[in-house]
Amino acid sequence: MRISVIGTGYLGTTHAACMAELGFEVVGLDSDPKKIEQLASGVLPFHEPGLPELLRKHTASGRLRFTTSYAEVGAWADVHFIAVGTPQKAGDHAADMTYVDGATSALAGHITRDCLIVGKSTVPVGTARRLGNLVRESTSGDVKVDLLWNPEFLREGYAVEDTLRPDRLVAGGDSAAAIDLLKLVYAKALKSGTPFISTDLETAELVKAAANAFLATKISFINAFSEVTEHVGGDIRVLADAIGLDNRIGRRFLNAGVGFGGGCLPKDIRALQARVSELGLDRTMRFLSEVDEINLRRRDRVVHLATEILKDLQGRKIAVLGVAFKPHSDDVRDSPALDVAAQLFNAGADVSVFDPEAMENARKRFPRLNYTKSAAEALENSALTILLTEWDEFKELNPTEVGDIVESKAIIDGRNVLHVQDWLDAGWRFESLGRRSV
Ligand SMILES: NC(=O)c1ccc[n+]([C@@H]2O[C@H](COP(=O)([O-])OP(=O)(O)OC[C@H]3O[C@@H](n4cnc5c(N)ncnc54)[C@H](O)[C@@H]3O)[C@@H](O)[C@H]2O)c1
Fold this sequence. Notes:
Elements: E1 2-6, H1 10-21, E2 25-29, H2 33-40, H3 51-61, E3 64-67, H4 70-74, E4 79-82, H5 98-108, E5 115-119, H6 127-138, E6 145-149, H7 159-164, E7 169-172, H8 176-185, H9 187-191, E8 196-199, H10 201-232, H11 236-244, H12 265-278, H13 287-310, E9 317-321, H14 336-346, E10 350-354, H15 359-365, E11 370-371, H16 375-379, E12 384-387, H17 392-395, H18 399-405, E13 410-413, H19 420-425, E14 429-432
Parallel strand pairs: 1-2, 1-4, 2-3, 4-5, 5-6, 7-8, 9-10, 9-12, 10-11, 12-13, 13-14
Helix pairs in contact: 1-3, 5-6, 10-12, 10-13, 13-14
The site of nicotinamide-adenine-dinucleotide (NAD) has 27 residues, from helix 1 and helix 5.
């Protein structure tokens, strides 16, 4: 089976390389010629563990190629996966559908053989049916084209593993033959017991929106309790452990801290609210705006703590550890860490930043911070240290050694990952989210 993957960003490149790993012949297509040139020469333009090896292996074997030509893929592939971006529209909560619509029309205009189009991008409910009509109108009657929606649940940092061994596969569509073809693509995962949920287009689209809305809500739920424990002097970690032991609740995604970010959760909960309002269900997803606000307030809380510690931020050197939205990723889209660093800078602080992988992306977005070559360089003579992305390298910092580098031993643990007593024993002032000051 010949597979094309349209849009070779975080999702598409991973999907393309994993499809090649599964034994298919694959072509990745992107509208960005520079990205295509890099990928074709086996260079991954972003950080994702395990992916550079797969990319090199399959560009070398010839099983994975890259192109910018829709004519080439339209005439070649049996299955086309759509993996282009659906960012938030500027000045609006809705998803920007320009890329999905553009990619689908461009592909449809170049299809010259029977094929299956499979949408993987996260889209507002109703998109797939609309695109199905668009494809029917744009392709000639001589070819048979089916369309399914197969939302993607991969986690950045674990994307290869999640693609090769997903915990579930969901596919929506009207054609049983198309579903059977998609099952051939995923035969290996299905054989090892991965559940396959076959449904209609609308449910498939909503499954993805619901999963992200649930995860965001769970994080903001615990962070809302953080506001209370901070007020009364409780300990949010103990609270999370205690409720997490109830297996109806579960402990995962109950880590209080500076909140969620990245290229998915924030824009997906906003897009869901926008879409549901468009459908006339104004009140239905209103709670998600509260989820969003709780999340953003955590960033303000870190800035507030920094101000409380330093009194005046003007000209004070602050070391920010981490700018990626989470560890094992270089993604800084809507990153709470980068946002806090930028807010501190805008308030007059002299902000030194270090992240093991996300420096380049952060610099592109916010060039005015002082990007250092190591954590030690960022920490040198800092009046305050703030941990904002829980990379292992930061979790393992030795408080005594760090204490010798900084100007002042004060730290904010924005992710609740440090061992408090160790830092206190080494003479630090320790602040965190959801716990009393120590
Ligand atoms: N990143 C994730 O962890 C993840 C997980 C699950 C779902 N998703 C969803 O997958 C989709 C893609 O996300 P991403 O993070 O990979 O985005 P991305 O921005 O990293 O990649 C999108 C790619 O699409 C390309 N593109 C845009 N318009 C195009 C066109 N008309 N033709 C060809 N290429 C085009 C861009 O150049 C870019 O390389 C989004 O809908 C996202 O919500 C992402």
